Amino acid sequence: MRRRVLLAGIAGGSAAVAAAGLWRAWDGPEPVRPPAPAGVERLERVWSAARGREVDFYTAVPHGHGDGHGLPVCLVLHGGAKRPPDFAALGLGGFLTDAVRRGTPPFVLAGATGDRLAWRPSAADDPQRMAAEEIPAWCAARGFDPARLAAWGWSMGGFGALLLAEARPGLLRAVAAFSPAVTPGDAVFGGITRLGDTPVGLWCGTGDPLHPNVRALHDALPTPPMAGGYGAGRHHFGYWSTILAPAFAFVGATLHASPTA
């Protein structure tokens, strides 16, 4: 069916120094927030058996869609410097409402704390399993429809979203990756054929240190990206905020499309 790092690709030495520099890049310009209200946003503490600890769990429903009952879900996989408690301040709820007002079919955002593990298992701590199994279950318990699931992530989270699609073929209807922290030869490149025909959206600023790696990923994908682009910008939410509207439009369209054989 057509449903279908930062730390991972940065394993040591000078690459680790590059990772630290990318985390500091959050000191860039403020997000360009749209004049749209957030709908229902919640931040809760929930127990994650996959991670063996309590985590912050954020959800956002577009304004005008009540509690989001029955809406599909887009997982939010954070990067190295921001966490779910920061999502409301970044304006994610307003960005979601703005996208829907522009004609994007509505969906819910849902994200939990994965820390700096690049969304991969580390001993008994498995944020990837949390994303694949527990977050959908938490969403179902709140009335959302995780049978229709996509993932969006930036930097380390973009790496994690792509890796999740590779590790769990058929789980995600789409992946939107902003400046994913990939490196040729890393786990994402190693499993790239498992993306199959999963719709992928790929964005990166041309001034981002990761831009050459992201273009290499673009060229290596088994199916060309269905959305994305490479405009002027660097590795921070000031740039990423300017591409949220087309990214959310891509996510919403794929979540509401009928899967085809």
TrEMBL record:
Span of the signal peptide: 1-19
Gene3D superfamilies attached to this UniProt entry: alpha/beta hydrolase
The organism's place on the tree of life at top rank: Bacteria
GO terms assigned for molecular function: acyltransferase activity, transferring groups other than amino-acyl groups
Keywords annotated in UniProt: Signal
PANTHER family for this protein: DIACYLGLYCEROL ACYLTRANSFERASE_MYCOLYLTRANSFERASE AG85A (PTHR48098:SF1), ENTEROCHELIN ESTERASE-RELATED (PTHR48098)
This protein's name: Pimeloyl-ACP methyl ester carboxylesterase
The species this protein was found in: Catenuloplanes niger
